[in-house]
Amino acid sequence: MKTTKTGLGELERAVMKIVWANPTVSAETVRDKLGQGHKETTVRTVLRRLEEKGLVRHEVDNRTFMYSAVEPRARVAARAVKRIVDWFCDGSVDEVLVGMVDSDMLDKAQLDRLMERVEQARQGKTGAGRAKKGAKR
Predict the structure, then answer these.
(1) How far apart are CA 28 and CA 25, in angstroms?
(2) 81-136 residue pLDDT tens
(3) Which strands make up the sheet holding 25-26, listed edge to edge?
(4) pTM, entire model
């Protein structure tokens, strides 16, 4: 199985995309959505490996294993980026972003959208933090 830059094999990555797109999913549904004629045993093996890696979990519903993502895709991606930033740039996010701009991976419009989303996320955290503090009083 070919391994991608994410540390997941190609089939594992395809399965994770399906898991992230659904609140819960069975191995049979994953196999159907893959649409490449994979055997159900292969899909079950991949799901078991992903569970061992801590990316999915399962619950049993009428003798059927129903899988769900342990964390949202964005959080897993952020951790992967953090590993890259730590490894290549000694933890300097600035260096990574400047490098992305220098190599034309990000343009001004993308940077503006990114800043907008960062601000929204920051406000969401602040609002959630205040709500929690208020609830404890």
Answers:
(1) 8
(2) 899 899 999 999 899 888 988 999 988 899 899 899 999 989 987 765 444 444 44
(3) 25-26, 64-69, 56-61
(4) 0.71
Alpha-carbon dihedral 81, 115, 71, 22, rounded to 10 degrees: -120
In angstroms, the CA 101 to CA 108 distance is 9
Task: Identify the sign of the CA torsion 40, 43, 45, 47.
Answer: negative
DSSP for 72-134?
A: -HHHHHHHHHHHHHHHHHTT-HHHHHHHHHHTTSS-HHHHHHHHHHHHHHHHHHHHHHHHHHH
Closest of 55, 74, 75 to residue 8, by C-alpha: 55
CA atoms of 58 and 68, how far apart (whole Å): 6
Q: How far is CA 82 from the centre of its chain?
A: 13
For residue 53, give the 3-state DSSP assignment.
coil
30: closest CA among 75, 77, 66, 71?
A: 66
Contact (Cβ atoms closer than 8 angstroms) between residue 9 and residue 52: no
